[in-house]
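OP here, attaching both records as promised.
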Amino acid sequence: MLREQKRLLMLYDYKFGSNAADAARRINKAWGDRTVEESTVRERFREFKSEMKR
């Protein structure tokens, strides 16, 4: 799966108010274990939050 595809999956969960742990679990359940790391999802969520403030 491409990096941008993963980012879109994370953004979808972020916009619906999921926390990083739940988002990582859902993505990995749907797309296979280790598709994303929880720490990566946390980083992206911080980026999304920062981007939304602009």
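Record two, same layout:
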Amino acid sequence: MQPKRDYYDVLGVSKNASQEELKKAYRKQALQWHPDRNKSPEAEKRFKEINEAYEVLSDGEKKA
């Protein structure tokens, strides 16, 4: 079983980040780690983590 990830760390934002800050951080990370743009072997895994983090943090019900 994997330890629970800190989604704020995944996106590189503080725990009191606004929705706008979350969105900007998501876009920056997504562009950097998108598998079509980043040929690193870990790019796909990292991109999935970024998407999951943003999905949870941008949804008020999942976030709580």
